[in-house]
Amino acid sequence: xxxxxxxxxxxxxxxxxxxxxxxxxxxxxxxxxxxxxxxxxxxxxxxxxxxxxxxxxxxxxxxxxxxxxxxxxxxxxxxxxxxxxxxxxxxxxxxxxxxxxxxxxxxxxxxxxxxxxxxxxxxxxxxxxxxxxxxxxxxxxxxxxxxxxxxxxxxxxxxxxxxxxxxxxxxxxxxxxxxxxxxxxxxxxxxxxxxxxxxxxxxxxxxxxxxxxxxxxxxxxxxxxxxxxxxxxxxxxxxxxxxxxxxxxxxxxxxxxx
Length: 258
Known about the structure:
By secondary structure, this protein is mainly beta. The protein has two helices and 17 strands. The strands form three sheets. Strands 1, 5, 6, 8, 13, 14, 15 and 17 form an eight-stranded antiparallel β-sheet that branches. A hairpin with a 2-residue loop joins strand 14 and strand 15 (194-200). Helix 1 packs across helix 2. It is globular, with a radius of gyration of 17 Å.
């Protein structure tokens, strides 16, 4: 797809990559995707408007994040959705079975951290049998990235950890994660296009367990009482039940920055 100026249109490129798949992308900068209530009502039109519902785009399934508690809703800040690092997060996802029997799980996040005073979760998914994390992404106070994966219910948690100083407060960054459960059996993390962490998945090669996620949270951890709230602004995100080629990953990262 080409824009009127002849360059590739980032939205059209992502739509083509996700066409006919259960995968999705979220554009937090597009107020057409944002609503003030968890039920998807009340247009978001101005900075400081609360955001209780975010719709996905593209792919063959519509998804959404929701937050039913008014005091825990992030807010639109004119450039994306801002999380206060105190309570704001999304605590429900419309399809908790997204991770069931997945051969792989990939995510992309374009964000800007406001402060590294405390560690924070970007997102997390847990299973419903023993309420263990399946997949989470955390940013630590030293600017390192911590990506955790688990393939089986009750299985072993594996961590792909980057060096310190990858994330800087006030500087936008694109983080891409991949857990290739049924292929290489390896978890990897890229930051602004550079590979920064790799770890073999301890549960071995195979599909993920077939249990709906008990919790799918955006901007907080997976504990009964949420903590480790994200502090900063999110601009774009993508979730997929597969891995991507280097060229497709580059296209996704270009869309995230656009």
